[in-house]
Amino acid sequence: MGILRAFNGQAKQEPKRGGIRATLFVYAMGGLENMAFISNAVSLVTYFYGYMNFSLTKSANTLTNFMGTSFLVALFGGLISDTYLSRFKTCVLFGCIELLGYAALTVQAHFDQLRPPPCQGLAISQTTQCQAADIGQAAILFSGLYLVAFGTSGVKAALPSLGADQFDERDPKRSSFFNWFLLSFTAGAIIGVTFIVWISTNQGWDWAFGVCTVAVLVSIMVLSMGKSLYRNNVPKGSPLLRIIQVFVVAIRNRKLPQPGIEDELHDVAGVHNEILPRTDQFRFLDRAAIEHTCDDGSTSVNLGPWRICTVTQVEETKIIIRMLPIILSTVFMNTCLAQLQTFTVQQSTTMNTHVLGIKMPGSSIPVIPLVFMFIFIPIYDCVFVPIARKITGIPTGIRYLQRIGVGLVLSAISMAVAGVVETRRKSVAREHGMVDSLQPLPMNVLWLGYQYSIFGLADMFTFVGLIQFFYEESSAGMKSLGTAISWFSSAFGYYLSSVVVDVVNKVSGGWLDNNNLNRDKLDYFYWLLAGMSVVNFGVYLVCASWYRYKKVEVIYKEENHAEGKQVEMLNAV
Q1: Coil, strand or helix: which one is 123?
Q2: Closest CA to 248 of 292, 294, 309, 300
Q3: Which residues of 505-537 are buried (b: 16+ CB within 10 A; e: fewer)?
Q4: Phi-psi region of 509 (alpha: psi -120 to 50; beta: other; left: phi over 0)
């Protein structure tokens, strides 16, 4: 009851903090920052290939490595946010780092001497003769790229958690926040792949990078304007350190008898006054919470954290372990996304890009799935979720893992459709004798919209599903880290993409080894990805069936609360 009074007292002291007003600033930063990031994610291949004289394969791999780093380093941002800084300060700090990266890219794009000589007027077969970037030019490029990657990773780790923190545990608006957060991301991305890509194509890359720099600067300023409205988390120690302590103490106590499920173990309220009850999975870790008795039979409570852990601390560790199979089984979907972001742009350069009399840059093709997402996200949140809620009794409509599963199915379908479209594109090239031609094929670029639209819907389901799953299932002391782990799937998806391309080239004898897509076997590659996606979905089903939501069954039945979140145990303490 004391914990409840503490929470109630805090609510009375800060009645105006949090809520929808506070999240408006979060939406603004998310949209502006993602506008800059996505515009480069879909078009940097063109910059690498046409301005830095990279080969097609090197261009694709450089982009996927950049994207992978952008998501992987989010783990570092999550740790910083949970351990040392508030989520707000983390967003501002890493936003400034991202700002420096875009500034460096702007300078390089503006001055010709910082780039290799342009490679113009050569046939496709002669592009390997272009002068490569020297060490200094490459250093500027990669410094700017990875400052952007490092900066955006911290923002991605802390910003979703900052927004979700503005709502109470039982507030249904918190579930809707993640959908509207994706909508803000999508709105920014639409502007990025149209307006900024148009600038890079028609005005120059220095102008495009300059707009990205200004967008990130404005996003930081807007987020700072809402500082007085935010509910800020108070970091209370490293979640990674607490996890390590559990393993160390469990190993140290490995010779002690395995405690029974009914045995009393050491427990006090964890960080942020959250208490997690004991579960029967990974019971070998329970040894870390065995209380030590003195010679007189009394219990020793003065042991340090490297000698004894609380049940809540042990359960935090179990949560992370349970999450790992889920995140690993969603990696391959992001590998497929990486292939679409690279090869679809390259496909578009060989096709007729005139739509309704307007020439559409190939890098703007992703606007098709983004528009689909922009339309369907409000429909999903305002129509589907209320209907599903009445049927299932779950405030989110369907469970997080079910939502992710739908996305995985759609991604497999998207890869199969991509194979069909590529087969058609190559047949058009052969029929018109344009296999080695630099002229656009008599096939409209909107054909690529089929595969991208389906994948856009897949991303709508999995993106929000993953972020919300890891935020809600994480303990109170590792919300940012949990959100960062959700980006782990994207990171390794992009890294795996580079590996898959290299392995397929070696095993197949060079399906993707030419600088001419009309002679490559990209259609075979898409079919391979479709088959592997089906296998991956089977693995995911096994992992999702094994996973146990963090819940209390009795309270879930009494309160009918989404996912039976364990923090509700506070009402029973």
Answers
A1: coil
A2: 309
A3: beeeeebbbebbbbbbbbbbbbbbbbebbeebb
A4: left
Domains of the chain: 14-236 (1.20.1250.20), 322-556+563-572 (1.20.1250.20)
Q: Give the separation between CA 220 and CA 94, rounded to whole angstroms.
A: 10
Nearest alpha carbon to residue 382 among 173, 187, 189, 565:
173
Q: How far apart are CA 288 and CA 335, in angstroms?
A: 38
How far, in Å, CA of 1 to CA of 573, rounded? Answer: 7
Helical residues (DSSP H) of 165-253, grouped into ranges: 172-191, 197-202, 205-225, 239-252
How far is the C-alpha of 340 from the C-alpha of 346, rounded, in Å? 10
Cβ(560)–Cβ(553) under 8 Å? no
DSSP 374: H
Name 294's Cβ contacts closer than 8 Å, sequence gap at least 6: 300
- For residue 72, CA distances in Å to 44, 65, 68, 316, 489 come to 19, 10, 6, 21, 8
Burial (CB < 10 A; 0-12, 13-18, 19+), residue 161, is buried
Q: At what angle do helices 56-72 and 331-348 cross, to 10 degrees?
A: 140
The tens place of each residue's pLDDT in the chain, 573 residues long, gives 444 444 454 444 444 677 888 899 999 999 999 999 988 887 888 888 778 877 777 787 788 788 878 888 888 888 888 888 888 999 999 999 999 999 999 998 888 888 787 775 554 445 556 777 778 888 888 999 999 999 998 898 889 888 888 887 777 788 788 889 999 999 999 999 888 988 888 888 889 999 999 999 999 999 999 888 888 777 777 888 888 888 998 888 888 877 765 556 666 554 445 677 777 788 888 888 787 665 555 555 556 778 888 888 888 888 888 888 888 888 888 888 877 777 877 788 788 877 777 777 766 777 888 888 898 889 988 888 888 888 888 877 888 888 999 999 999 999 999 899 888 888 888 888 887 777 888 888 888 888 888 888 888 888 888 888 888 888 777 888 888 888 888 788 877 877 888 888 888 877 877 777 777 788 888 999 999 999 999 999 998 888 887 753 333 333 333 333 433 333 333
Quick check: helix, strand or coil at residue 511? coil
Tokens standing for 515? 């600088």
Which runs of E-coded beta strand occur in 392-492?
Answer: 441-444
Side chain identity at 233, as an amino acid letter?
A: N
The whole-angstrom distance between residue 227's C-alpha and the CA centroid of its chain comes to 25
